[in-house]
Model the fold of this input.
Amino acid sequence: MDINGIDCSWTLGLNPYLGMSLVSAMKSALVTGANRGIGLELTRQLLESGFNVHATFRTDEGGLAAINDPNLSIHKMDVRDKDGIKRVIDSINSLDLLINNAGVADGRWQSISEIDMEYALEVLNINSVSPVLVTQQALAKLTEGSKIVMMSSLMGSISDCRSGRSYAYRASKTALNMFSMAMKNELDSLGISLVIMHPGWVETDMGGPNAPLSTAESVSGIMQRIEEQDMSMSGRYVEFDGSPIEW
Ligand code: NAP
Done:
């Protein structure tokens, strides 16, 4: 397309020099638990950064319904459902970024005697095992140079566990950290870098109204960590601002 002698085909997504669509050269990301909270803000900021985003929700599209962007694809996906994950992954060509963000809090039981074992297993399933299941299914679409973010928590740090309590949530994030580190060597050999992230204490349904950080502040830090992440950093356990966390 030529307007006043200026070739405008770039603006239409066509690269006149390479003869390919810019759209196909766009980086592609998958975000789980993207209908609210940190996942929704990640989706917004990834779109702003020029990513093609596959955002997933469990039951309700939530805030995703209000985003009008041709680079957003919305998928219904429960992170516990292997067949459902496979259907979503099969519909995607390739992935440069996988963000395992979906997670649940626990019952905040006040004593050992109050721990609901059935729910504790559910927390472990969603927070520890399901990110591994999603990663396992996504592996075929991740390539050399791709990055994986595991949304963990400072509460998964054993050395930081001074107050105790939050039994299942803490244990689930510690297990997620170990699953991640155990996967790291295999991912290294594939050229895929992994970061274990604490988003900070963030004002979401999970973080509550007293949290000091907005989703926008937390996610802009996470975006910087993703941008700088390379193979030499794979397996780091960091806060959204890049500060390292003791295991
Ligand atoms: P949130 O507002 O409670 O959102 C949690 C998200 O996870 C929701 O989209 C939820 O979907 C989704 N989810 C839960 N179970 C799922 C399942 N089985 N399948 C698919 N999606 C599921 O929490 P958030 O604060 O944004 O937390 C995001 C991540 O950051 C979590 O992994 C959390 O542990 C971690 N984190 C948060 C904080 C904080 O201060 N907020 C601190 C440390 C770590 P539904 O709407 O369907 O429930």
Residues 167-190 form the longest helix (24 residues).
